[in-house]
Write a structure and sequence with these properties.
This protein is an alpha/beta fold. It is built from 9 helices and 10 strands. It has a 4-stranded parallel sheet. Strands 6-5-7 form a 3-stranded parallel sheet, sandwiched between helices. Helix 4 packs parallel to helix 5 and helix 7 packs parallel to helix 8. The longest helix has 15 residues. It is flat and about 55 Å long. The mean pLDDT is 94.
């Protein structure tokens, strides 16, 4: 289960309900609805929660301005930001401090983008994909570095970097890859699956960047058709006309039970033989936010 989701469950268990969560803890309808039933209240802004209440920051991270706003309202905050997102925040702060200008590759309006760019707004320019590179201007191209949102398409990000480097030859790379390993692994796997699939179904929500990217990658790498669903009951009969092979994948924060429900429906439709495609072992485990860890006495 996702570290951020566990953090909300532990917070409710430890502090009682309600526990407030700024934005969706992860971009998945089922997860959000389940946590609401357990006592989580999702809000858009800090000011919507009572002063002094428990507040969880979502996996996508927040800007320093949001942290400051919570402090002013005496909120008891729990930072469930994904450690991979936190890494990008720290890189933004460091490069800004070293007087670099940062080209941040990401999708305008995404919470992760808002949080990361809030770390050094005067030193960052958003690059919303390869198509906008020709319009990008920077105050100084001598100290220039790129960073990226963690849930992007690897291929699209690298194409954006290629075009940026053509325009700004002195552009430097970040010290390490920013894109989430779970996002990358799923994209690598779906490339293999798509080539042999008449139809690909991605389980994930519409506001999940990595889920939406999986549909795009599947189509780009050979799937004849690809669709995204939140739940198995959204699958349509018309998708299966002339289909002999179905590929299935899911977004990085999708509960396994939703994938199993889809596989059960596919089995009932006659697609009962399942071949698992593995491209990597995901054995990295992140610790809970420090506010939820047992005290060492």
């Amino acid at each position: 289960m996702d570290r951020a989701v566990i953090a909300v469950e532990k917070a409710i268990e430890q502090f009682g309900s309600p526990v407030y969560v700024r934005k969706e803890i992860v971009h998945n309808k089922h997860v959000v609805a389940t946590l609401e039933k357990r006592g989580a209240i999702f809000i858009n802004e800090v000011e919507e929660a009572p002063e002094g209440s428990h507040l969880v920051f979502s996996a996508h991270g927040v800007s320093p301005a949001v942290v400051s706003s919570a402090e002013k309202r005496n909120m008891l905050t729990i930072d469930a930001t994904c450690p991979l997102v936190t890494k990008v925040h720290r890189e933004a702060v460091r490069f800004s401090r070293d007087e670099y200008h940062i080209l941040f590759i990401g999708h305008d309006g995404h919470e992760e983008v808002e949080g990361t760019m809030g770390e050094a707004p005067a030193s960052m320019t958003l690059v919303n994909g390869p198509g906008v590179v020709t319009d990008i201007t920077v105050p100084d191209d001598k100290k220039l570095v790129w960073l990226s949102q963690t849930t992007l398409s690897v291929d699209e990000t690298m194409e954006t970097v290629r075009r940026l480097r053509e325009k700004f030859p002195q552009l430097q790379d970040p010290p390490s890859d920013d894109i989430c390993y779970a996002t990358q692994n799923r994209q690598v796997a779906i490339k293999k699956v798509a080539a042999n699939s008449d139809l690909v179904i991605v389980v994930g929500s519409a506001n999940s960047s990595n889920s939406v990217r999986l549909v795009e990658v599947a189509l780009e790498y050979g799937a004849k058709a690809a669709y995204r669903v939140d739940f198995e009951h959204e699958v349509q009969d018309s998708w299966f006309d002339g289909v002999s092979t179905v590929g299935v994948t899911s977004g990085a924060s999708v509960p396994e039970e939703l994938v199993q429900e889809l596989l059960a429906q596919l089995a009932a439709r006659g697609y009962a033989t399942v071949e698992e495609v593995k491209t990597a072992e995901e054995d990295l485990i992140f610790s809970l936010p420090k506010e939820l860890r047992p005290s060492r006495k």
